[in-house]
Each structure stands twice: as structure tokens, then as C-alpha cells.
Known about the structure:
The chain is an alpha/beta fold.
Amino acid sequence: MENHRNSSAQIGLFGAAGAAGQSIAAALGARGVRYRAIGRSRQALEAAFGDDPHADIAIWDPQDPSSVEAAAAGLQTAIYLVGVPYDRFAMHPQLMRNTLAGLNAAGVQRLILIGTVYPYGRPRHNPVTETHPRDPHTFKGRMRLEQEALVLNAHGRDGLATLVLRLPDFYGPGVERSFLHGVFEGAARGGRAQMIGPIDTPHEFIFMPDLGPVVATLANTPAAYGRVLHLAGAGTITPREIATRAYALAGRPPKLMVAGKTTLRVLGLFNPMMRELVEMHYLLTEPVVLDDTALQALIGPISKTSYDEGIRLAFAAAKRALSLHAKARA
């Protein structure tokens, strides 16, 4: 197993290559903090972090606790960002058990899990605070709940302090796993964007670059541990309004193809990933809107990018990507 370049990093990003990991890495680098980018693919890690002098790189196998231990050697804080395919959510609890075993063996002192709203199930009211019952009615929600329980129950054991930070849906420049990504691509191309509806219900999104500074602060805030905290977006907005603003930047009216729950069920007969989306469709009709008063009381006011600015930046990134692709084909 290939190990990290050196042991000077204090903070490790497990599952670093995704959008959340890159946001946190950028914030740590901006503060002059060394970090270890940990993932399964050296190629992906080198592409994302190879030019950052603050980054060490380590390869791991999250299904092997000894691999976790090797990747975590010398770290004080682990930030867990590991995603799994939508049709393999049953992996989440076992991967966390493996990770906790490896972190304990390595003597890591702090763990932050970047979580989701899935464990809440349908919201009983909005906005939702951290005291809202966790009552998931979906399989994915139950798997995320089990994952969270493992993390929270590990707090205070074997010298480990733990924190769960829950986020809403996200978007941002080049964030391909956002379900809004196709909107920015469609606007940049001048073509039709596929969306999952309904698209007129107010929803909450976090601009992914806003995540990094918050996590960088929490990593060194002892009072944050042993609990759950929320990071909310910049208010609510409808997906249609995001599309309208994105297409306006292109000087075009929106061209949208909206798939509702029935369409997803039909597509799911042929596409397993579409089938998995059906279970979580309730979040479009009954969105969870987070209250992050507790987080702001702990670390102070949080800088949040407005939807106008976030949409502008995401659209600009989509335009650049389209231009680079066109040049590469020329």
C-alpha cells in the first residue's frame, strides 16, 4: 500500500477528490495549513492536489482498517467525505466501522463526518434544527443514520472526539454531482437542461466553496465536538429560478425538460441509478431547510455566497469547460 509523502500534515481528508474535499483543501491551503488528501486513485488526487504545496497525498482502501491506519498515521484530525454510488448505500455503515477502527489504531484525536439531511426523513417543520427527530423512512436515510450513530457513539472513546456536520444539497463551479449541474451545462451550451421536478418548490442549496472555511474552523474548535451541527445555504430558492437566472446569463430563455416521479420510475426500469432517485424524490416535494443558528453561535457569522453570485460563478465555470472541450476537439 502506497503511503503518504511525509508526516507533516495534521488534518486528513478521507475521500478528498470530490467537491467537498476540494473546497476544504482550498480553505486549508489558503490558511497555510498542511493537509493529507486521501483517496483510492492517485491519478485523481494528483490532478486535484498535485500542484498544492500544502498537500500530501495518500492512497487507501476504505474497506481495510489497516489501510485506514496507514493513511491516518500522524494525523490529529480526520475529515470523512467518502461517497458511495447511490445503489450501494448499504456500504456506508461498514466503511465507517472500518474507518473508526483504523483511526483509533492510528491515535487520531478528532473526526468530522460531513453528513446529509437524509437521516431526518420528512421534515415535521421548517427550518429544521439539530433537535429535529431523526426518523428516516428511506433505506438511504437509515444507512446514513446508522453511519451517524457510529460516529456520535465513538465520541469520548479511545481518545477520539467526533462531530457530524449536516449539509443541504449543493452546487458550485464544476460540481458535477450536483443535480443542478446540468442546468449550468445546458445554459452554457444553449441547449436543453434535464431537471428532476417539481421545480417550483422553494429549496435550499449550499455553494460548495463556502463549506471549506467552515470546516477549517471547526477542525480547531474543541467545543464543536460531541454533537451535530448544521450548515445552511443562503436562504431558499426554487430550482426553476436557478435555471431562469443561469439561462439569463447566456441571454436565452430557459429550455427545460422536467422529469417527475412517474418518469423516474419508468426510467428506473432501464437505469438502476434513476431507480434509486425515486426513493429520495420526497426531498423535492418536502424539502428539508436547515437552521444553522447553533453553528453561528459557536464560530460566529458565516460568509455565504448569494444565489446570484453562485449562479454566475457556476455558469462561468460551465462556459470555460465547454470552451476547453471545444479546443481539445479542434
